[in-house]
Amino acid sequence: MPFSYFEHDADMGVIGYGETMEQAFEAAAQAVFAIMTNLDGVHSRDEITIEFEEADPEFALVIWINLILGKARESGMVFNDFQLRRNESQWRARIKGEKWHDALERGIEVKGATFTMLSVRQEKGIWVAQCVVDV
Amino acid sequence: MKLERLKQLQPYLWTLPGALTEHRAEVLLYGTAGLLKTMDDKVLEQIANVARLPGLVGAAITMPDAHWGYGFPIGGVAAFDAEQGGVISAGGVGFDISCGIRCLRSNMRVEEAAPHFAKLADTLYKAIPAGVGEEGHIKMNHPQLDQVLRGGAQWAVGQGYGSAADLEYVEEQGCAASAVPENVSELAKSRQRGEMGTLGSGNHYLEVQVVDCVLDADAADAFGLFEGQLIISIHCGSRGLGHQIGTDYLVMLAKAASRLGIALPDRELACAPIKSPEGQRYIGAMNAAINCALANRQILTHLTREACNSVYPDIRLETLFDVSHNTCKKETHEIGNEQRQLYVHRKGATRALGPGHPMLPERYRAAGQPVIIGGSMGTGSYILAGNAGNPAFASASHGAGRAMSRNQALKQWDGHTLIHELAQQGILIRSRSLRGVAEEAPAAYKDVDQVAEATELAGLARRVAFLRPKVCIKG
Predict the structure, then answer these.
(1) Which of B289, B348, B449, B459 has the fewest CB atoms nearer than 10 Å to its CB?
(2) What is the pLDDT of residue A1?
(3) In angstroms, what CA-CA distances link B194 with B81, B178, B238, B269?
(4) Please, which residues have CB within 8 angstroms of residue B332's CB and are 6 or more apart in sequence?
(5) Are strands B72-80 and B56-70 parallel, antiparallel or unpaired?
(6) Residue of B nearest to A5 (CA)
(7) Taking CB atoms and an 8 Å cutoff, what residues of chain B touch A66?
């Protein structure tokens, strides 16, 4: 799933793209975890599920990123595979990754998603999900 | 930032022209023309938004090291009166609640220590858990964490991490009284289970420094500083718990603001009236995070002492001061001729109490509060002293401030080369993240000398000593 970054003085902007809003959210999650490690080196060994409720897509993006960051830190894991489904305001995800180990490249820690430059929109048929994350 | 949008009031003070109304208070920016020119226009936009929040007292203010943040600019200061509908804003505190610096002074001179710097660097690197994915040596369950959140550094000292003498030189004697652990989510506590006594990553560091020059002999004497002295500075915050509180309350306060009819110029300024249930819940949780940060830095102080003692058996490390720069604190300030209780948000700004302030430890009461401006790993840092009559709610700069984004820095430098170049200059870097080192390249930061000079000339604090880095453990 494609993702990219945009400039911010102290922190970093992440952008996820997808054919659906859910795919754009998944790509934004990839962008976040790619700040922390090289995702090519991560094995999808373990899976966790998360659920949340939010009707506002932009709030949902912030909640989504913050929830997976929280779960990653809680479990000592790094994630590289995200499958998100939505039923109106109900969101459910299966996330895969593995525990941190010495072979994984260390990037920098992402503390949380912010409302800065937050946007979930469609551009020429492509969903774009973006925000600044605090690092 | 385009200076033509500003009006210069004094050599180091600028304002945003325009009529002041009940919905738009004054904006004040401290700094030189040179520093302001390097700031992103977003700094002005963000501080102007802060000036529109309800219950603001005086002006919305930026420090000389200000840069583009989220909601508040980093280097932003704003005080609110609860009795006048004033608000508490999660965006005015930041995610890394109570991020700050613990500064330790040693009894050792650099000449004695220098032959063993490589061993010291390796020992500290092994002793201090740092970087993404690293857990600490201490594992805690939720009831134990609740004790941390109530007791702060006092809890840590009670567990044998450091001594009671440290507490005298920590803000609030190491414990924020209004902490409410029950207002902290289970996920926040779960994130912290393995993170007590960890440094984190990004701009966090543990640095061994030498006092390069003393600029104010009387204050240096009061602070126990002398040229050639070894100093250690530990920069970190409330770790995963604080980050989770920041995220939990960001959405909650944004929704509360909407429900309470507070028109937010930027959603990131998510806030609620101080007296509202939501505001009170956040204040309780934020103070719990402050205690988490104070305990964390106290544990790191203990680990640092153990590591240093294994290299230098005769070294003594005393706490010079511990000051946070991402907080909101209830303080008394004189406004006109009236003493008022205000909630002072400092996001990337350091409290800088002036001489004679009753909250200062006796030893520093004549000199003023130690203020620490942490610079980059290649340049240096300053210790300053708070001034009487500080015009910015007793606040000063907290760091050099970024001059370049992380992406730009990554394009310009690579970690290996940077570590080699700094070693050539006598600065030893230890880090698990080459990417982190590149992003923190010294040239990605503003000139710390200019920031410290502007801080002094603006009357915010006065320079006491310049510290040069020797060993840096980066997250």
Answers:
(1) B449
(2) 64
(3) 38, 25, 12, 31
(4) B339, B340, B341, B342
(5) antiparallel
(6) B407
(7) 244, 247
pLDDT tens column, B8-28: 999 999 999 988 887 789 999
Calculate what percentage of chain B has a pLDDT beyond 90: 89
Q: For B251, phi and psi rounded to 5 degrees?
A: -70, -40
Q: How distant is the Cα of A66 from the closest Cα of chain B, in angstroms?
A: 7
Q: How far is B188 from chain A (nearest CA, A)?
A: 8
Tokens of A66: 């913050």
Range of the domain at A67: 3-134
Residue B72, pLDDT above cutoff 90 = yes
Number of domains in chain A: 1
SS3 B134: coil
Q: What are phi and psi of A42, to 5 degrees?
A: -95, 135
pLDDT at B95: 87
pTM confidence score? 0.95
A63 touches chain B (CB under 8 A): yes
Which CATH number do you get for residue A12?
A: 3.55.10.10
Chain B environment of A104 (Cβ under 8 Å): 133
Instruction: Mark whether B235 is an active-site residue.
Output: no
Q: Does B436 touch chain A (CB under 8 A)?
A: yes
Q: Which of residues 351-380 of B touch A (CB under 8 A)?
A: none
Q: Is the ipTM of this complex over 0.90?
A: no
Strand pairing partners for B100?
B236, B324
CA B392 to chain centre: 16
Mean pLDDT, residues B331-344 taken together: 95
Q: Per the CB < 8 Å rule, is A108 touching B134?
A: no
Domain extents for chain B? Answer: 3-403+445-474
| Domain B3-403+445-474 belongs in CATH node 3.90.1860.10 | yes
The three-point CA angle B443-A111-B290 to 5° equals: 100
Q: Is A8 on the interface with B (CB under 8 A)?
A: yes
